[in-house]
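Fold Annotation — chain and its backbone

Encoding — discrete vocabulary of local shapes
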Amino acid sequence: MSSRPTAAPAYRRTNRALFFGGFSCFALLYCVQPLMPLLAHEFALSPAQSSLSLSIATAALALSLLCSSVISDRLGRKNVMVVALVVSATMTVLSAFAHNYAQLLAARALLGLALGGMPAVAMAYLNEEIEPASLGVSMGLLISGNAFGGMLGRMLASFLSDFLSWRVALGAMGVAGLLAAWEFWRSLPPSRNFRTSSGGAAMMLHGLRRHLGDAGLPWLFALSFLLMGCFVSAYNLIGFRLLGAPFGLRQSLVGAISLLYLLGIFSSVWAGRRADRLGRRHVLWTVMGIMLAGLLLTLAQNLIIIVAGMAIFTFGFFASHSIASSWVGRRALTQQALASALYLFFYYLGASVVGWLCGVLWEHAGWGGVVALLGSFLGGALLISLRLRSLAPLADISVARTYAAFDPTRTPNHGR
């Protein structure tokens, strides 16, 4: 009988802690997104320059992810995640006191480096501690925390900056992050199935060759780059569009569009359950098609249709990310922390690269040009998801052989 906590109080504590961890990670990382027009005004920046406040953090996070997987293999999952949350919250508080844009960017870069110890390590923790049959739901709850953090972080930052200042907004988010880190430390059970690894750089290089040489993982990594790049870019620039003519909305109203993240809280868990039941290969391409359809709706000039398009786009993104991220854990039979780190490396690299590129494109081609570029990226992602339908996961092959040794008539379905 497995010791993984799927029905015990430890299972509920794990889900609660990882929800708070996901909340803090996304809230601290993306709270600057609705503040970009204000930063552009105060520091005399272009949209592309103001987007660096997010892009530099996501780039630093991407670079630190691979190192964090090696560190967590030695020091333990929980220790690394707690330190990551505390340091990133502290950097958010300090960024509120920046005297110039360069200081703010430095604080955001350090925040990104610290947060590298959270996302991939959390995915590895779940893969080690949660039963395979419940992994989709637990991963969905982690991503729901991401969605809730992204929503609340953006909304609070927009509201506080509209009526007080962007400095108060960042300071408040940092304090909230410290409280979330405390709840995470208090609730998360110690690892039961973690084993210390001392392989270091040599083992990491071996794992890199193994994962990048796999028939399916590189496609999932490419998918993460495209998905997150498109999602972040759309939310980076929708504020500029709605603040300007012909809409002319207030900062707090633009920030309220983050309420759409509530759909992500639902869709990530919903998609995880469907993937556990029907198989990831049969669900992923459908939710990616939903994401693309929502993006195209935002080309309308009617505010209601634009908001509806962003809602559909958000629903599709979180559903897609929930399925793809859990698929990585099932596909990687060894060094799962490294596989998760690679997935998130490309995930945040996409946020940084595509986010900056769309900022430049906005200045020359407006929203239509941005949607054209993102639509082509999502079209490519949809083709990848269709290709993955024909891929037989290694977990299925391994488990099928074990089943066949005892009863050739039984076929497991949990690794689809």
About this structure: The chain is about 80% helix and 0% strand. The radius of gyration is 21 Å. The longest helix spans residues 336-388. Residues 1-7, 395-416 have pLDDT under 50 and may be disordered.
